[in-house]
Design goal:
This protein is an alpha/beta fold. α3 links the parallel β2 and β3. α11 packs antiparallel against α14, α11 crosses α15 and α12 packs parallel to α14. It is globular, with a radius of gyration of 24 Å.
């Protein structure tokens, strides 16, 4: 049986901040299953490795015997979390939120144990909330208190608008903790105000305040900005084995260690040994292979992980082109077609703006020659091998 101290060490792994650590250890020493909450607003349909940081921590709690509650904020999702936003977000419709929520349900069990996960929707209680209930909840905090929140404060002092409904978001998120009787809530560092709101409201409703565990925001493929679909620097957990493997191999050696700490299931002792091997002269690329294999195996299976590694080695170490490369026919018209539109039409990026960014990063090649000019025009009568990044290829026939 794992001791409270050992559990504490596992739970603290990778955490940026815990409020309060002594409370956490106290709770663990009671030897009872704790109610662990993490909320996800289904504002986008797909989960990526940034979400996997929280999910991995939830899985650690499950493995330690605690009760994990995966909250889908289908009600709060219609408001939209204003955290870190410099402008009011357009609210989603109930239909959009429910469609995204269903996708979440299918993806989370790639990490969580379905037999030990309670999935909740906050519309279960918020749809029953009356206007009088909402006014009472709003009366628990002042506008001055809300403006202490960094993003609200910046928008207020710079004269940018803040809609009244945005003030409701942290209150409703905190109220979820009251209803769920959470002992612990997990969230990213950008959620600190919202997470602490849960503590305050639990005190107001005469509950023992939850312990807050904040995890760092996983950097994306650029190693700088947080992983985000809108920035195009993400690794989706539903992506193909080869795409996941290749994207992980593209991250920097420094970023690799953070990925290991936050989403790998390897022990801290194992990670220390791997670091020592690199210090002794082992190529970090070989360590990165281990990370890529582990992540692909988690979201697919062992066989696909091995195949993805073999294909990666064949393609990039030996210079081979991928098997089953898609062939796309694109009409160039009489005057030619922009390289940006060709890249998008070939399905190698989701937009021409993303194609432009990839060219700026030196990540686009035609017949193995790097493209540096975003205004490049391609004309009919050609067949080219188009490459974006290290993993995306297409044979394009220009007609």
């Amino acid at each position: 049986m794992v001791s409270a101290e050992e559990s504490f060490e596992i739970i603290c792994r990778g955490a940026e901040e815990i409020l309060l650590k002594e409370e956490l250890l106290e709770r663990l020493k009671l030897g009872k299953p704790l109610r662990v909450k993490a909320g996800f607003d289904p504002t986008a349909p797909d989960l990526h490795l940034g979400h996997a940081v929280l999910l991995t921590k939830m899985r650690q709690f499950q493995d330690l015997g605690h009760h994990v509650m995966f909250l889908i904020g289908d009600f709060t999702g219609m408001i939209g979390d204003p955290s870190g936003k410099n402008e009011t977000r357009p609210p989603l419709t109930r239909e959009q939120v429910l469609e995204n929520a269903e996708t979440y349900r299918k993806q989370v069990f790639k990490i969580l144990d379905p037999d030990k996960t309670q999935i909740l929707f906050n519309s279960e209680w918020m749809d029953k909330f009356t206007s009088a209930d909402l006014i009472k909840l709003a009366a628990t905090h002042t506008v001055a208190r809300m403006l202490e929140r960094d993003d609200f404060h910046k928008r207020y002092t710079s004269g940018q608008s803040i809609a009244i409904h945005e003030f409701l978001y942290p209150l409703l998120m905190g109220y979820d903790s009251v209803v769920m009787k959470a002992d612990i809530e997990l969230g990213g560092t950008d959620q600190k105000f919202n997470l602490l709101m849960g503590r305050e409201l639990q005190k107001h409703f005469k509950q023992k305040p939850q312990t807050v565990i904040m995890l760092p925001l996983l950097p994306g493929l650029d190693g700088i900005k947080k992983m985000s679909k809108s920035l195009g620097n993400y690794i989706g957990i539903d992506e193909s084995a080869e795409d996941i493997f290749g994207k992980i191999m593209s991250i920097s050696d420094e970023t690799m260690w953070l990925y290991f700490e936050l989403i790998s299931r390897r022990s801290l002792t194992e990670l220390k040994e791997l670091r020592e091997k690199v210090s002794a002269g082992m190529n970090p690329r070989d360590i990165k292979f281990l990370l890529a294999e582990e992540i692909v195996e988690r979201f697919h299976n062992r066989e696909e992980a091995i195949r993805a590694r073999e294909n990666f080695i064949a393609r990039f170490r030996e210079g081979a082109l991928p098997e089953n490369m898609p062939e796309v026919q694109v009409s160039a018209g009489e005057n030619g077609i922009s390289i940006l539109h060709v890249i998008k039409a070939a399905g190698l990026t989701t937009s021409t703006s993303e194609a432009g960014r990839m060219i700026e990063q030196g990540a686009v090649r035609i017949d193995n020659e790097r493209v540096t000019d975003k205004s490049t025009l391609l004309h009919s009568g050609k067949e080219i091998i188009l490459q974006v990044g290290k993993r995306r290829f297409a044979k394009v026939v220009l007609s």
